[in-house]
Design goal:
Blueprint (H helix, E strand, L loop, with lengths): L1 H25 L2 H30 L1
Helix pairs in contact: 1-2
Pfam family, one: CsbD
Family: Belongs to the UPF0337 (CsbD) family.
Protein name: CsbD family protein
């Protein structure tokens, strides 16, 4: 399940990045901010998965 979660988080980050660029190009600050938020969520979730993996390997 971990690989599936990692892929899902990577997609969330990519969607956020695209949304941020779209908002920036359109001058829509709200969409741009939503994109940044989605990117941050994706990054944090990926970091959590990496931490879980590190503990699994050491355990």
């Amino acid at each position: 399940m971990s690989a599936m979660d990692k892929a899902r988080h990577k997609v969330e980050e990519a969607v956020g990045k695209a949304k941020e660029k779209l908002g920036s190009a359109a001058g829509d600050r709200r969409t741009e901010a939503e994109g940044k938020t989605e990117q941050t969520k994706g990054n944090l979730k990926q970091a959590g998965e990496n931490t879980k993996d590190a503990f699994r390997q050491d355990g």
